[in-house]
Design a protein that fits this description.
Helices cover 10% and strands 20% of the residues. By secondary structure, the protein is mainly beta. A hairpin with a 6-residue loop joins strand 3 and strand 4. The radius of gyration is 22 Å and the shape is elongated.
């Protein structure tokens, strides 16, 4: 069973960045999920999908995987570049596209 080590992305529905500083170790699914024909619920017999371990650093997560002989793959986080913006730029006289009418 292979594990993924990554930093979770920011929630797209909220502006907060909670729980994005920690590294997470998740197991990849061994078998696909199945749909129950009667109720339509999705189920799986793989219990390791429910495990999610959090670490302060990437090195701690890698050390844990190596100590427990877990094959792993590390995904580097995408760090967004901040774009400087100012409200007053909306009203500049040399703006290429008019802001209003």
């Amino acid at each position: 069973m292979r594990a993924r080590i990554y930093r979770p992305a920011k929630n797209a529905m909220q502006s907060g960045k909670a729980r994005t500083k920690l590294w997470q170790l998740d197991y990849e699914p061994e078998s696909p999920r199945t749909v129950d024909p009667l109720m339509g619920w999705t189920s799986s017999g793989d219990m390791r999908q429910q495990i999610a371990l959090e670490f302060d650093t990437r090195e701690e997560a890698v050390a844990y995987a190596q100590a427990n002989a877990i094959p792993y793959q590390v995904f580097e986080p995408h760090v967004p570049t901040p774009k400087p913006k100012a409200y007053s730029d909306n009203f500049r006289f040399d703006r290429k596209v008019p802001w209003s009418h």
